[in-house]
Amino acid sequence: MLEIRDLQVRYGAVTAVQAVSLDVAAKDIIGLIGPNGAGKSSTALAVAGLIRPSSGSVNFDGRSLGSLSAASRVQAGLVLVPQGRQLFPSLSVVDNLRAGAWRLRQRFDRSDVDELLRDFPALQDRLEQPAGTLSGGEQQMLALARALASHPRFMILDEPSMGLSPIMVDRVAEVIGRLARERGMTMLVIDQGIGLVRRVASRVLVMAQGRIVGEQTARELADQSAVEAMYFR
Amino acid sequence: MSAAPQEGGSGSPGRPATAAQRGSATRLGWVPAFVSIALTLAVMAATGSAPGALIAGIAAALLASRGLRTGPRSALIGIVLAAVVDAPFAYSSFNLTQIVVLAIGAWGLVILGGQTGQISVAQGPFVGVGAYTTAVLSARFGVPLLATIPVGVVAGAIAGLLIGIPSSRLRGIYQVITTLAVAVSFPTLLLAIGDPVGGSTGIAVPEPFQTMQVGSVDLDSTQLMYFFAVACALVVWVALSRIIWSRHGTAMRAVRQNEIVAAVNGISVSHYRIASFVLSAACAGLAGSLSAMSVGAVSPDSFGMLYSIQFLVAVAVGGADSLMGGLLGAVAVFLLTTSFSGIPVGGIQVSNEVVYGLVIILALVLLKGGIWGALTGVFESRWLKRAVQMH
Amino acid sequence: MLLLQDVVSAFGAGAVYALVALSLVIVFRATGVINFAAGEIATFTTFVAWELLADIGLGFWLTLAIVMVFSAFVGVLVYVFIMHPALDKPEFVIVMLTFGLFELFNGLSNTFWDPSPRSFPAPVEGPPIVIGSIFITQESIVDVAIALLVMVLLMAVFRFTKLGLGFRATTDNRFAAEVVGIRPWQMYAAGWAMATAMGGVAGMMLANMLALSASMMGNVLVFALVAVIIGGLESPLGAVVGGLLIAVVAGVFSSLSFIGTDLATPLMLVIVIIVLLVRPSGLFGQRKAGLL
Hints:
heterotrimer; A: alpha/beta; six-stranded mixed sheet; four-stranded antiparallel sheet; 34% helix; C: mainly alpha; two-stranded antiparallel ribbon; 2% strand; globular
């Protein structure tokens, strides 16, 4: 569903992403891990259309995304759950969800809210609460729900486990799993460590210093030392 | 004589010359300027041809600086002075004096804005304070006009202190709005004071100079007024340049750049912010006195918000980071506001404010650092660059 | 009793200040810019309104509607062509741009119309209403009603429409808005459109109350700015309350014989300075850290 070829992202003189190529097949979940500064988030932002790559191509459903705007990509079914959640802190939970559905033609009403929050029971009691007052775990759930509101077919999750307790990470992993099973969602999950990714992804790519330096299937990930070796290459 | 730094008020001087080079350049550096002024005046007195005199002056500046090896800066100064001295024989001295008045007021904002990074819409009222001081003292108390000038400067400085103390504690948009309120209130305040300041009709100011004969040339009162104003402007230029290039200037630019870092380095932020208000208002006071003398009258409406905006536009369009920018901006503002009352477009007489507004917008959108910033940046002229940089 | 009359009479002016202050707040929330040209743009659109009313002879309400749409359009043009390209420039440049717009629109008014005062048709004719010993002109009732209607409309747009949601989201977290597929510049343009439309209404009301002239918005702008400062730059409620407060205080000051209309403005200024020194972010604004 998603094909990235030789993606390069530069910030002025600094090249954050060197020449990244990866594929994500439909209904698959691919993990992308790596240390700080490896270029993972830059890759995510470039795919989502929020920053412009200096070279390389991104194909979605066989069509080149080219210089399509982020808004158009959301319309096409590609959405990002950004690092640090990036909610609308003074808007209520409901309004955050409404904002997520902004690009949809159809009206967004109460039944849509209920449908969305099926997988996020904790949020159902907090509909009118400002998003900024939610706990870290609730915020992550809201970020996921907000992304779902646009009825995407492909989701990029950037560091969904950041700042969360192990229990919450479990819950997030659970939700990701359910999204894949029940809604057939295709996902690219980016994280620093393999804890979360290992549980949901079929394959994990390792990124360091702007490049993909290795790949492991879920089974091979059991062997920690191999992954560590790639981290510190 | 020196020009202020080019970039953002905090540019660093160019590579320092050796002491010997610096010494010789400074000592002789004034000579081309003197030579060029002298030759311009001489040719003017002898031939009565303004263009001829100008050419002679420019040539003298270039040749003298080349011959004495005093560098491009001294040549540039000579050229500028030749033009300044020659101008009253080719153009209306009255208009030129207004430009000088605008320039001095704009230089105040170069200090306030270019150096300490503050924005004040109150420059108009400060000029008004100087103008009214001169008017009241000379017309009501018979004080000789020239003597009212220092008083005007001091009055401006005091007004600057009074307004500056609260205003300098405000930042950004709050400072703009407060100083704008001062500008709007000033005419109303004058009207409220009423008769002692002439009420709504204002006060008439006596003629400052009588016609003089120099050689075969008659210098009338407007031309004498112009030369006097230029002399004052030169004094201001030198004084402000000294300040800009002193450690006080460095401190001010540090305050503009980053207040917290400046404070941490022992610079008293509030001290410099207030001081620059006072200095800026003192310049305005001088400009006001000169304005009253040359225009011959003061009235409340002349010194409100629109007048304040003229000074802001001068530094915005000409360049806030250097005195030269302020001068160019003053010329631009004068041309745009007073020199014509509208241009015909199609069948419609378009009011000059439209052009004024458009020029402001275009200059801000297209030019970085105003006209002077664009000239020194875009033209990439090594000669020009060396002329404006400090050794 | 005299005091009460002053308060009541001031409501008309207060409505005008409140509308202009509100338009300033919206533009500021959207693009971080104080639009010093707000008054002059409003004056220009009010001259256009005069053409529709006096020359072409359209009815008041139709003219009001047309002028609101026209003003919104002007606001979008100003944003797209001038403010949007300049948003990353230093604050001084942006402030000066609005001053440039001030001159531009003032000049446009002077170009196409005689700047001296002319009378502006009223929405209603009729004698003042008397309650006890208080006189209330019918015009001021209608003006206040229009202003209230506009404000309610604005609130409704913000709360209930998709556009309003998009605007609130974008001003809350611009990056997140982009993530979600909102185009921020569209929201900012809409903000400018709404603000300029409100200015257009305020202009018509002011022309009605005083007289239409090229300089009619001069003092209003200052009062609106003062209202915004007192109310807090980001608070729409603060702007409205501030506007009413300023009008009432100015009205009371004017009628007090030892102050009079002349000193009302300078007195306002002193009050503003005091407020700013005591509470730098206004009465309703949020505290921000800063050096004193």
